[in-house]
Amino acid sequence: MLAGNLAEFPFPSLVGALMNAGRTGRLRITPLFLEAEVYLQGGQVVHAAVRTGGRSLEGEEALDLLVGLKRAPFAFEPEVLPPHATLLGGLAVPARLAQAQSAWEGLALPPDWGYALRLPREGKEVELGAESLGVLTQVEGKRIAEVLVAPGVLRLARVLHTLLQMGALEAVPKVDLPPTELLVLPIYGAGSGVAYVDEGLYGEWARAIRHAFRLKLLDKEVGIEVRPRPQIPGRLGLLEEDLRRLRLRRGDRVRVVPEV
Amino acid sequence: MDILALNEHLNRVVYGFPAKLVYLLVGIYLVVFQIRWFHAPLRMMRVTFSETFGALRERAYAFGGQITPYQATMVALSATLGTGHLLGMLSAVLLGGPGAVFWMWMGYFFGTGTKFAEATLAVHFRRRFADGSVSGGPMYYLSRGLPRLRFLGHLFAFFAAIAAFGIGNLSQAGAVGGALAPLGAPPALVGLFLALLVGVVLGGGIVWVARFAQVVVPLKLLLFLVAVGPLLILYGGQIPQALALVFQAAFTPEAALGGAAGYSLFAALNAGLGRGIFANEAGLGSAAIAHAQAQVDHPVRQGFWGVAEMLVSFLVTSLTALAFLASGLWRQGGGAAEAAQALFQSHPLGGVVLALTVAVFALGTMVSWGFYGEEAAAFLLGEGVRWPYRLAFATLAFVGPLGGLEAFLAISDTLNGLMALPNLLGLVLLGGVVGRLVYGFFRGEPWIPPR
């Protein structure tokens, strides 16, 4: 079984190689938050489908989307037959792939389509067209993959690219970590606006998020910069100034959660 | 010169007035120049309370590791709050007059710096083992902090390991036996009970010692309040005069008390400083062995618990002294035991409460000192010595109430005093480390343990 990652073997080259080898079977591509299948029969691409949540795309639109995937594990299972045909095969497929590839080349979307889209925290004034505005109103809180699995993939990708470039939208990892209960520990020193957690807990969060993050104090509804500190398991280190500001004192229990 | 005569001479040196001045000077050096208490006294007081009494509600939460900072302090307090806080305090007032109380407070104030430095250094230089357990105390901070004077650590451990058998065991077991004898408890039975209790608790290691201390220290304080509370109420009207007398007699005892009383400034200083130094063990280095066990993110945090230990000790000695002074019985002179009997005659529960308080005070001291001695012996001779040491300690606990072994007791008393020699020298030489740690702590810097 042929397996690998699109980061090393881009989708158009992979499909081209399978077509040239005259293979029959199913190419499964499984990035997080997406499920994609491409069926070949005797070297001809006869069916492509992409699904995420309740939405799906088939045929050429699915191929357009898959060309934009920069990294995702794939596996080719030989001799698996398609449920039905959505593509005509022949030269139309390589041509479509080439066209989609050139369209994606000009776009800079985050490589991880699991990232969620949101309006920026510090907004600035931007001028948007009707199309961009229409998209903007529908994407808040959704993952990039969810937005793109819709008719008009390349158009949507172009609009998203524009919105991200203009700063009208930002893409951040969707953090779904449970709140942690910590005891407040005073840290003596000048400054404010920084919280400290044990380096073990910080590392755990950093590995899960893989992006810069802040800390949200759930009971106070306050976000604060967070840094690792050795030997304070179960504690939330807060500078004296912040203790006063947040009306907290030593030993208070606070629920915190990292936020991007 | 035979060994007992030599011991007597040494004993006079280590507990003499010049030695007390050395304790005081070391405390002043640490408080003023290294901890720099007077740099921001109000802030230091606020932080001390926040880090100790303010952290009581999180007493069950460690920073990982075996025992919490609170528990480590309980182990130290269990040793510190001994019979010296009761009978020793009465003795100091009888010897030095009311002015001795003022000088005792001075000893406490500067001794606080010494205790702070001991606890801080004990955590900073402690050794962590692969199983997560730790060992520390003066033997570690002397040998790791002063590599060229490593022998000081070994010297301290030698003195502590042997002194623990005498001052920390035989004396205490004798005090328990003596206190319970009037209540009809046979000394052999008391000895057997003590041997079993000490053996079992020490056998469980620091975790059991800490659990025991966590129960026995509040019990000590409760008994103390039951013992001294009614006396303070009974003599409440005389307390303001007693307090005034403390200050008047501190500098001019002859004028305050009348020449006939026979109290001099030197007697007040000598007796007061002695209590202010030896009752709380600041400078001896013993409590540092317990503080080293605490799991904290920064050694200075444990240093503040050392201050809290001193505060509790200060309150117990001061309230005892005030009750005694207010009663007026100190004017009758005599020994501490007779004075205590006379004082507690007016207590609603009579001498029983005194007997129980003395017994529990001595019992707690005994267990903590067993741990101190064991740690010192393990430092000198390795981990294999722990069980033999525990068995020997339990055996002597049995012997204590039966009496005898006076010569050994006298020598161990001297060795107890000698523990201060390497410790105080080390505290002066490592004062800079304490200063840097305090400076870093108040700049919010994390602690980096020495390699």
TrEMBL record, chain A:
Pfam short name (any one): DUF4388
Domain named PatA-like N-terminal: residues: 3-86
InterPro entries per record: PatA-like_N
The protein, known as: DUF4388 domain-containing protein
From TrEMBL, chain B:
Transmembrane domains' residue ranges: 20-39, 86-106, 149-168, 188-209, 221-239, 310-330, 351-371, 391-411, 423-442
Alphabetic keyword roster: Cell membrane, Membrane, Symport, Transmembrane, Transmembrane helix, Transport
InterPro entries: Na/Ala_symport
Membrane topology: Multi-pass membrane protein
Localization terms from the record: Cell membrane
Keyword Transport: yes
Annotated family: Belongs to the alanine or glycine:cation symporter (AGCS) (TC 2.A.25) family.
Protein name, entry field: Alanine/glycine:cation symporter family protein
Organism, as annotated: Thermus composti
